[in-house]
Amino acid sequence: MPIEATWMVEKRVVYFHAYGQVTGADVAAVKELQLRNHDEGLAPVHTIVDVHSPSIKIPSIAQLRQFGYTSMHPNTGWMLLLGSEKSVVTFGVSVIIQMVGSDHLKVVKSIPEIVEFLNHNDRTLHLTVDEVQDYIDSRKVAT
Fold first, then answer.
1. Which among 99, 102, 104 is positioned nearest to 122, based on CA atoms?
2. Which of 84, 121, 127, 138 is least enclosed, having the fewest CB within 10 Å?
3. Pairwise CA distance, residues 40 & 126, whole Å
4. Is residue 79 part of a domain?
5. Does some domain include residue 43?
6. What CA–CA distance (Å, rounded) separates 103 from 24?
7. For residue 100, what are the contacts with CB-CB under 8 A and spacing of at least 6?
8. Continuous H helices in the chain
9. For residue 130, which phi and psi values (nearest 5 degrees)?
């Protein structure tokens, strides 16, 4: 599956990294993985969805509809979409996020924007740009 989900901040911030061809089955698997992360996490559990990879290709909207909508987990916090230069990818992933029922979606363009937004909206987090950038860089090397 060309999607990886790991804890950036244990039990608080999940980092999703997507790359390559994402199928409808991958979307269904991600929904299940997201629910499991939220079950394990401490509310609110925030999610960073990184679709920056130039290689990412997503299913069509028609294919996405096959997998239906899911109720959002009560532990869900903000979902931040680190957008792609391909606007169709950002749009498609935002549709996926809405399909899983998120009311708290923000499209961001940079790591500093992620850090500023999460620290402002969740005073229990004390993220720095360097630590978030280092974490993201370490995950991209692994894929």
1. 104
2. 138
3. 21
4. yes
5. yes
6. 22
7. 31, 34, 69, 70, 72
8. 24-40, 61-65, 87-99, 111-121, 129-142
9. -60, -45
Q: Taking CA 119 as the corner, what is the angle to CA 50 and CA 114, rounded to the nearest 5 degrees?
A: 25
Number of domains in the chain: 1
Burial tier of 32 (Cβ tally within 10 Å: 0-12, 13-18, 19+): exposed
The CATH number given to whatever domain includes residue 77 is: 3.40.50
| 51-55, 68-72, 81-85: range with lowest mean pLDDT | 68-72
Is residue 142 one of the residues assigned to a domain?
no
Which residues form the domain of 25? 3-137
Residues 82-110: tens digit of each pLDDT: 876 667 666 766 776 666 566 788 888 89
Scan for tokens 């549709």, then name that residue: 95
pLDDT in tens, 102-141: 678 888 889 999 999 999 999 999 999 999 999 999 987 6
DSSP-based three-state secondary structure for 58: coil
